[in-house]
Amino acid sequence: MPNKSQHHERDEYFRKIAETRERELELVREHLGLFIENTELILSRPEYFNITTDAAYLGLMVGFYWRIPLGVLVMLWKEGKLMTTCPQCQGKTYVLSVNGSSGSGVNMFAGICEKSASIIRGSLASFPEFWHVLLRMREKYPPRKPQPSVRTKRFSWGEGIVDEPAFHADKHNEPEFIPLDLQDVIPILLSR
Q1: Are strands 57-60 and 92-100 parallel, antiparallel or unpaired?
Q2: What is the pLDDT of residue 123?
Q3: How confident is the model at residue 143 (pLDDT cuts 50, 70, 90)?
Q4: How far apart are the C-alpha atoms of 122 and 172, rounded to whole Å?
Q5: Confidence check: pLDDT of 165 > 70
Q6: Distances in Å between the alpha carbon of 62 and those of 43, 101, 129, 135?
Q7: Quick one: which H or E segment has residue 163?
């Protein structure tokens, strides 16, 4: 049975996650227009595309959790697939996070109203539609961390043991990228 110290550690852990989520949600709210106007750049650069934030995620009651990359967000916003109507002003709302039960349909979302620039929280009438789209995107764009270059050695009769050129350890052999945080990309986008 957990003791008071373990309960405190757990509570502290979840409090920090909630604080980070709110801080990052506010950051996206402040710079939503910047992300939208730089959609093409975000989609073209892996170090921007793969930025994740605790404010943007898909969570299902069955234990599934996926931090949605910035590139997937702007792509779906551009296609109108991660949008809903603001219940307060009927403006467009850019959805950032969706969580709930795929069985019962009970759900919650957080997004940003384009018209009022407010953080909107509520329930989606079309929850299955949102999580189906996001699950398909998760399959297409699985979580990706930069892979370090791996140097190997080989034996050559003429040269002895020699270094092989670097290659990437991932199965796709994609180019490396330096991961950025959400707050790191904002000044870069502002300077364009």
Answers
A1: parallel
A2: 93
A3: confident
A4: 39
A5: no
A6: 30, 7, 17, 13
A7: strand 160-163
